Task: structure prediction
Amino acid sequence: MRIATYNVEWFSNLFDSQDRLLMDDGWSGRQDVTRAQQIEALGIVFTAIDADAVMIVEAPDQSGRHSTVMALENFAAAFGLRTSRALLGFGNDTQQEIALLYDPDRLSARHDPLGHETGKKGAGDAPRFDGVFRIDLDVDATEDMVRFSKPPLEVAVRTQKGNEVRLIGAHLKSKAPHGARGRDEVMRMSIANRRKQLAQAIWLRQRVEYHLGRGDPLIVLGDLNDGPGLDEYEDLFGRSSVEIIMGEPASGCLYDPHARQAMRSRFGVQASTSRFYLAHEKKYMQALLDYIMVSPDLREKSPNWHIWHPFDDPDCYGLPELRNALLTASDHFPVVLDIDI
Result:
């Protein structure tokens, strides 16, 4: 079975008020890319990866005016994708949802959120992901009240072989100090954003430990907006969000080979899943932000990971149409897991 995660930059901009694709020359949310160009590129990429299930980060908007499920199923129909069914969990107000697009002939999937509802008072013991998490991160004896701007999507999956697997799709808060002015404000916002991101990671890790304790086959996948050694503020808190979610041997470790490589050698060659243009520096930056982490029992099934990077992967680079589509479709690249389940 092939499972993928893919952050599609401003996917929502590609649909009209009826959740139909806008195949025109209007600008998409991507720099110097029209809607038609991005849609065609996405069609090429989704067709090429040919996954049984794709966890889509920044999926189309869910609101009173739009339907994430309808938009994604219209997209799949337009390109004849076998991943014809879409699943949404808790919607949000960012126009960047987390959704699963899957092949109903290969698996069944349902939104299955765990944890209790909290109300405004919150709770500190892994509440439901649309609730409030109470935690004191800076030892000031005052608990912070943390919410997910994009609540993780918890999916109960049953494969064609009859195996049951849990998927958790996540998009943790960005650490970037958007809107900050001046060095001091950049520092304050960066530290505040990292604190919130780490709180989200701890919340997610609590759910991971619950599943590991029950022996549930588990896959955590998505854009974690973090990795070992990615910024100077990490030292203030000791660990990255990725390290928190993966866990320690004593409490059960999740595994992603690219994350492990980054943890072993923070200054050596590392994999990357994203490519951003820094206008003020006139250059591109690459980063490892997207992951597929598996529980110990799934790791024993000899899984294989593949980042569809247009320059780092010879197969992607060797196909000009696919290489160009990957660069046009998004500022992130798909991460694919092949595993016998």
